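[AMINO ACID CHAIN]
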Amino acid sequence: MLRNNASFWKANFRVLRSWIAFALAIGILGGFWYGCYFSVVSYDPEASTYFWWGAVIAGSIGVVMLLFNEPIVVRLTGAYRIRSAIGREKLWFAVKKSTFRGPMPRVYVLPGKGLNAISFGWGLPFMSAVGATEGLIDSLTEDELTAVMAHEMGHVYNKDILVSTALTISV
């Protein structure tokens, strides 16, 4: 069945654009890697072992970063998860209002008085998390906090987290 809904096509174009950017970046980095590989191997054939071990180590680091990025972020920042609106109603309802399609991501509060918000996870709504610092939650109004959380949810919906993780691994 064909859909004539403009928002359906716009949302799917955004996802397609993210995957095209991801594939293009990986292709360019892969081409650069192979170019370096062949130029070094033509100079010293025994050096090929180092390139392959580097690829294996980088790939392993990438898998760990992708699979365990949420626990890593939580441990490094000291964030704590909120599972309901009790205690942090303003943040909970800001994220709930910002989630306009798919399930609501996990919500974290980061300790500190700084003004910062983050999104992390896999870049899929059911496998992602968003968070805000205590300072941000306390200093913004409910509408302002909703706008900030909508921005973070935009990162989730556009798969920015997945793309930036893959590019970080590749570089």
Notes: Residues 6-43 form the longest helix (38 residues). The longest strand covers residues 128-133.
